[in-house]
Amino acid sequence: MISYYDPKTEPAANQPADLSKDLGTPPSKSTVQVSVQIDGVDIIVPEGTSVLRAAAIADINIPKLCASDNLEAFGSCRLCAVEIEGMRGMPASCTTPVKEGMKVQTQNTKIAKLRRNVMELYISDHPLDCLTCPANGDCELQDMAGAVGLREVRYGFEGKNHLDGATDSSNPYFSFDDSKCISCSRCVRACEEVQGTFALTVEGRGFDSRISTGQDNNFLESDCVSCGACVQACPTATLTEKSVIDNGQPDHSIITTCAYCGVGCSFRADMQGDKVLRMVPDKNGKANQGHSCVKGRFAFGYATHKDRITSPMIRDNIEQDWREVSWEEALAFAAKRLTDIQEEHGRNSIGAITSSRCTNEETYLVQKLVRAVFQNNNVDTCARVCHSPTGYGLKATLNESAGTQTFESVMKADVVLIIGANPTDAHPVFGSLLKRRLRQGAKLVVADPRSIDLIDSPHTKAQHHLKLRPGTNVALINALAHVIIDEGLEDADFISSRCDDASFQQWYKHIQDQRHSPENTMEITGVEATELRAAARLYASANNGAIYYGLGVTEHSQGSSSVMAIANLAMVTGNIGREGVGVNPLRGQNNVQGSCDMGSFPHELPGYRHVSDESTRNLFEQEWQVSLDCEPGLRIPNMFEAAIHGDFKGLYCQGEDIAQSDPNTQHVQKALSSMKCIIVQDIFLNETAKYAHVFLPGSSFMEKNGTFTNAERRISRVRKLMPALAGKEDWQVTIALAKVLGYEMNYEHPSEIMDEIARLTPTFSGVSYENLDKLGSIQWPCNEKSPLGTPIMHTEDFVGEKGKFAITEYVATPEKANKHFPLLLTTGRILSQYNVGAQTRRTANQVWHDEDVLEIHPNDAEDRGINDGDWVGIASRAGTTALRALISQRVQPGVVYTTFHHPLSGANVVTTDNSDWATNCPEYKVTAVQATKVDEPSQWQAEYAQFSQRQAKYLKNKNGGQIAKT
Amino acid sequence: MSEDRLKYVVDMANQIALNLLHGKEQQQCVTEISHHINRFWAPSMRSQLAEAANNDNYQLEEMVILALKQIKND
Prior knowledge:
The complex is a heterodimer.
Chain A: E1 33-38, E2 41-46, H1 51-57, E3 83-84, E4 103-105, H2 109-123, H3 140-148, E5 167-168, E6 174-177, H4 186-195, E7 201-203, E8 210-212, H5 229-233, E9 239-241, H6 242-247, E10 252-257, E11 266-272, E12 275-281, H7 294-298, E13 313-314, E14 323-324, H8 327-345, E15 350-354, H9 360-374, E16 379-381, H10 388-398, E17 415-419, H11 423-426, H12 428-439, E18 443-447, E19 456-457, E20 460-461, E21 464-466, H13 473-486, H14 492-498, H15 501-511, H16 518-525, H17 529-541, E22 545-549, H18 551-554, H19 559-572, E23 583-585, H20 592-597, E24 604-605, E25 609-610, H21 614-624, H22 636-644, E26 650-654, H23 658-661, H24 665-673, E27 677-682, E28 694-697, E29 706-709, E30 714-718, H25 730-740, H26 750-760, H27 769-775, E31 777-779, E32 823-828, E33 853-856, H28 858-863, E34 871-876, E35 880-887, E36 895-899, H29 907-910, E37 927-933, H30 939-956
Parallel strand pairs in A: 1-4, 15-16, 15-26, 17-18, 17-22, 18-21, 22-23, 26-27, 27-28, 32-36, 33-35
Antiparallel strand pairs in A: 1-2, 3-4, 5-6, 6-9, 7-8, 10-11, 11-12, 13-14, 13-28, 19-20, 24-25, 29-30, 30-31, 32-37, 33-36, 34-35, 34-37
Helix pairs in contact in A: 8-25, 9-25, 9-26, 10-19, 13-16, 13-17, 13-19, 16-17, 22-24
Chain B: H1 3-20, H2 26-40, H3 43-53, H4 62-67
Helix pairs in contact in B: 1-2, 1-3
């Protein structure tokens, strides 16, 4: 039996009763309060509040159509007209701000007549098909017609009208029915104000006004990014989800958290029974504030895709048919193999990988299984290959392995420095918030080898694009710091009061050396000294300067140095410890922060406490009733290396696809093929599962309870929407595996796992499901000192210490271009796809990106005789693959770019084993390659296609195959 | 022990040294290298590093050699 949480019917104790109410206009930020009287009710609201909003707060609901509290007041529908003492006529309450002593009347005969007349005009040009309309029951126009008491339409329907308006169904997720449009322009304004894309416009004037995607194209071909803001804003059935058109209105809703990127958007899952009808961004979600992107909003269909595997499977070796078995048999098979391996090869010959796509509770259990049951510390997480340098670098400087701010903080930033991140593609909802701030006048500096959209978008332009060469981040960031010191732009008070003097003095001596000057680093970075100096001045002179960075910083041989250099930059300018500033890692996957917090690294127990710390170990030993290893375990690349050399034989891999996501694919394949037992727990037979001996069917985020922690350290509830298709939720599978290995984990519900985490982890001590339900979400640290959580870190100190400057010398990557490999390949992500694509490739998002392509500069393409769409062989020191060419000015000459969302693209066949010096995070962002025109796939692609075909056959035979007797 | 395996840890150790040796006195540098390896490397990898140090086929950075005395090897 599923217990549904519906905020509409079960409001948390300290929240207003109706959380989803649209108050008509945005809140005023004024601190001055004014008193007004509306319909005889005295109300005190901030100065600047609209009459419409003030009335709504007092539960006086003035009819409206063009107004919404996430959009600036527009005043076009005239439905919200009111009478105000001392004012002539009937002003629109949405565009009229309250004034001290104002007396407003929202209802009388005259107002009612006006509203009915307005509504009559709307309805005279609107289809009267309410009973068969998809929005029936969820239509503001219908509601308002009822609210104003419309009973007749005197004008008839014979005259000029829009009733034959066409329907644009080009978008895979929603349609636009022009005949139902009332031209309120809410969709246009949502696209501008909320999303910041400006894809929609009002075309024509007066009666001929109509919503247009511009240039006479349809939604699919337009600039629309399918964020869904227009659909959400539409008060009629004009813009409607196709799932609603096909299935009707939802019968209940559940608030949950998106399982895509590190923004961690809160969504209202609108349900029909156990079926998710649509995902609507939750207005009360503090990370997303009612906004969404194409992935979270629409691309959830993978959860019920036909490729889901819902029964456990086993096989003796990877060239055998799979055999579908019971949970008991699969777990017993897995347990015997793991036990046998440890007996033969030793305690350290097995390990596990946790996933940033799984919940905190699941991740916690996997690391517990490794430490308590496997009796070693060979546990690592996919954060190894993305943000492990963030964990290292921020801990070394700011004394905590986490970003410092809320996303909302960017709205107080005056200068934003983005390094190696592409928010509008990889963190789209934050990208929209940032664009809103830029439209308000904040300045932008982007450091990226490639031209990302933010550099030149409608109404936003970067002041400086530091188009550096791949692999030179440290030289560039050092040069920025050098300018700040050289020109006396440092914040001496902050440094003396908040930072460790010895480390500052050492760093100061280091950074002021002329070798770090922009003039001297220009040859390394390729960035003009004058441009870099101007960017440094802009950032350092800002009242509030904020740094946001992504994998373009971390996935380098100096990823950790870059993170520390960024922290140096923030500290030297005093840009830490308040709103509008900070160091903000944009985490790739939904629970990267959480998987790291939960002790997924081989050297750390939950809460970033080293395994060698006796008191911490004792704490866990008492709780878990086992003794724990005090030495670090193997990281993922170390596991691969040990596997190839015969020391590492068994792996439990939950929710991660290392065969596709990790670098140097052929090396990974060799490692996987060397193991005796690979257990994959996933919702699909992913690339890694093709090398597995045991497949344990996983549960999607819709099928379980738990929590995710986003890039702001915000812990949010994941709520079960439907029963687990495989009969077990992921946390239950780990418990069952532990049990057959002889260790009892006694939890009835994930909330009990969180209770244990809170008992053992000081930064989580105040976190519980009860508190999460009450507060909506909590940013850790949450403990006695901060019972409501900590939105902004380091406001007074750096977790009880001083901030430490780190010396970050630029050391060139060993991955060098030469005559054989003259180009530098850098990799990244695209809006419509997510990570290895296992989820998004099984949705209609494929329409936007059904293959990875190689972006190549026109000069480099011309030199090689490559045209748009040609097949291009990309060879590196690690391997060769082939992709279709996309000739693009986004990349600079000498640099090529691709994504890794499709397995057969083999982007990681080309990337190398080079990694960050401190953390082994792979250097995905710099690979020396040659590109040549080819007419067939690479050998790897051909062989892998055959291998995949065989694996598909083994899966198809899953009910008929025989397992060999061991 | 395969030589490639030893090269793997030698390259890693040398890379750590190259990134830590700047702007510091030698002793601080040596301490930071050993601290890093003790903190983050599994014992098996530390043993391989010790083995490589006794093998003329591998070139360890001077600072790594100095740090070896402080690197745990059980």
